[in-house]
Amino acid sequence: MGADVLSAGKSGVTPMMAQYLEIKAQYPDALLFYRMGDFYEMFFDDAVAAAEALDIALTKRGKHEGAEIPMCGVPHHAAEGYFLTLIRKGFRVAVCEQLESPAEAKKRGYKAVVKRDVVRLVTPGTLTEDSLLDARRHNFLAAYAVVRDEAALAWADISTGALHVMPLSPVRLGPELARLAPSELLVAEGSERDLSSIVEDMGVPLTAVSRGSFDSISAEKRVSALFMASSLEAFGTFSRPEAGALGAIVDYLELTQKGKLPLLQPPQREATQGVMQIDAATRRNLELTHSLSGGRAGSLLATIDRSVTAGGARLLEQRLSSPSLRLDVIRRRLDSVSYMTAQRGDAAKLREALRKVPDLDRALSRLALDRGGPRDLAAIRNGLGQAETLADMPFASDLPDDLSDALRGLQGHDALLSLLDEALIAEPPLLARDGGFIAPGFDAELDESRELRDEGRGVIAGMQAQYVEQTGIQSLKIKHNNVLGYFIETTAKHADAMMSPPLSETFIHRQTTANQVRFTTVELSEMETKILNAGNRALEIEKRLYDRLKGAILDVSAKVAAASKALAEFDLACALAELAVIEDWCRPEVNESRDFEIAGGRHPVVEAALRKSGEPFVANDCDLSGGDAASIWLLTGPNMAGKSTFLRQNALIALLAQMGSFVPASSARIGLVSQLFSRVGASDDLARGRSTFMVEMVETAAILNQADDRALVILDEIGRGTATYDGLSIAWATLEHLHDVNKSRALFATHYHEMTQLAGKMAGVANATVTVREWEGEVIFLHEVKQGAADRSYGVQVAQLAGLPEAVVERARVVLEALEQGEREGPAQKALIDDLPLFAASPAPTPQVKKGPNPLKQRLDEVHPDELTPKQALELLYELKALNEG
What we know:
disordered N terminus; ATP-binding; DNA repair; MutS_con_dom_sf; DNA-binding; damaged DNA binding
């Protein structure tokens, strides 16, 4: 490392430490990974923080201003794993590389410091490495811009090239962040406090950048230059906040990628009215992409995902998160799924080919950012090869519109595919510096270098045979030593012939010894140089060819991206068809009416869980169409009977239909749902001073203030978090507001049986209940939803099933009976209620529960019915009766 040492000695700061401090000063908010040979090293506070976060040893190395310097380090080849750990813990990393070798530094002087600089800032929204990303999910970097009374949100995935923007009011920021789940959000300096509460709810890291990044005028120039266009008008009409948000993303990428911008696609403008509006609480309650525990398992996405490509999986999540409001889009998507369900042979062949498709988008992005390698070249080759296979398939019938469009994107890659096929071996190494990825026969100069590198002795032997034949001297040898290198040696008796024309024109005299004469030739000297440099030469040629192949790919990057998109479209259509066939889902009819008629609806996640335990799922109908049918169902019945499942399954069926999927039902007719709202479950937010009831009221308020007449609302147990009459009043008023003001389609589950009276007062409200049966004091859940109201809640029975002590259950029965009798008989029962230990100043003794073995049960356990004669059975019956009376 030459003078790359840390100890300052008498002179104070060493040149290397001065270099480190100078670079660190430019990135005060990031951990500086300072490259020293085969390690990234960190010093001072960075070392202390990194050692704790990474659980690695903290040591000391050298001194600075009289104090020892804390230091820790990680191997450069394993750095990606450490990056991921630090990013997840909220750090940013500045990667500082050596820009020259120590040998090159020494040329400037023995004490010269190796040139270093930061080549990349690693942040949550700018990751591209496969090891740092979930292949089946997008990794969005978002930017939120505000200009006076207007605002906009832009987002990009630099690992796939996606770039989008939309106008967005502040009130819609939370729901959109919930939909996109970006890994990082850029905001203008000074606005962090205003947005922190919204962003914290979503768990999105906030990054403040200079206000100049959001300046719409400079932003428009910046984005236009990126796409080599004269103005943004080439891609559509963008407002000032939209241009500012796009510009902030590009500016941030220039900063973090140090000028190596990713291959972004031209910006696509999205309209808020184009997709179903789903707020954050609803996404969480319905567990669309993550379960309530936070993982992917148990979510709707995990349950329905049958995709076999990374691109198809990302497209599925995108559509599941953003169900469409455009009938033509929905119907085209459903046509694609219908085709694949009908043409099972075509679908099977397609899926077999799709299984071999690598992640084209991310390979393309890494190549553009110069973070790729030979395997990314091979990924492009393999992906385009499978695209060609799909394009050449003889489909059984005409493809629907979306698949027909996608098919065109699979074609036209012959030239690039031919080049990559010819140039690359089947399984290239990870890194270009390892070499060995160019196929034999592709480049003559490379083949020669490899031959010299690998078969130098054979080449020299061949030259020796050539010279023997040319001179006729059978004793001629080619030898090597460290002084002369390669030379031709012959005996002294042949010296005159070798030094006389015509041989002297080829052979050059070098040395004469007592018995031997040594010569060389121009060809041998050149061959010697080639052999000695063959290894390095071969590697340099491969690197040059790598750059050539990478350039050829990037020259047609738009076509490669189009092929990737087309492959994802085919994969998703096949995956949804596979799901529909295996799970017996039906094609929904989606129209512009207010229909909502589901026959035999099922909850896909619950059904999948029950299947594992061998239990059937009980399907149920739902009709909220209005007209002759009510638009609001008031659902009563006990806990554990399946009310919440019924509510959720109907919301999920609407969502699946509008994302373009078949649905878990025997039939479904759905008028477009503009908004989906769910208030299900109980949770608190103690960090912000919100009780469970407060959270419930905030979410209910959001629904009542936003829901329109095309919304679908599911509400479960509104008002249960407060006193009985307060809760009943709130639930009653909420249902009235939904019916009279919002006019939404809704499912409203409650334990307030008093509310069932509303069905007789409001034309749009109908009672429904989940049926149960009682048998010998136990409750049996049938999970069937039928018209009518429940007469009781069976809470005590459910408590018994949950395992409450028998004494508690018996005491609850006594209290419940007294309360119900008091309610029926009014003041006449006041004395009885006052006498109940529940209300009395001094509690009465707890009912005694019999302990010890039950003789009746013991006797029954001994009985084997199949072995009894009729007479024995009759005798046993008398015996059991006597035991019971005793």
